[in-house]
Amino acid sequence: MNEKDFEKAIESIVERDSRFAPAAYVFISGALTETARRLGRSGKSPVKRRHISGQELSEGAADFAEEQFGALAYSVLREWGVKTTRDIGDIVFNLIDVGIFSKTEDDSIADFDNVFDLRSRLLKK
């Protein structure tokens, strides 16, 4: 998907679900890419091997936020509407709904419920 189509898809998501800023979708997309790279599940890996679980993506998104925003990580995410791991899951499933991300039959929004306390994790320092 090219950048223009990605932007249009995010605009359509935000029109129907305004809980999260467009930047949150861009961030989660980047977090998924970085998490897959770190876990060795990017590129031409078989589909099953490339799959990232809700827990893995939640952890990866928290790590990515810390790297990108340092001590301000939680403040930035909160400003975008992301306060919990469930919010990460809601963003993921919105991206699935428009065809940007995909899922397996076993994936569920519940995979993102209470993975950890995002606020505590990012404010631990």
Helix content: 55-70%
Secondary-structure-based class equals mainly alpha
Count of strand segments = 0
Q: Helix count, per DSSP?
A: 7
- Summarize the biggest pleated sheet: none
Using the alpha-carbon principal axes, give the shape.
Answer: globular
Cα end-to-end separation: 38 Å
Q: How many distinct domains?
A: 1
Low-pLDDT sequence parts: none
Rg value: 14 Å
- As a percent range, the share of strand residues is under 5%
Global mean pLDDT = 91
Order of helices and strands: HHHHHHH
What are the salient characteristics of this protein?
single chain, 125 residues, mainly alpha, 7 helices, 61% helix, 0% strand, globular
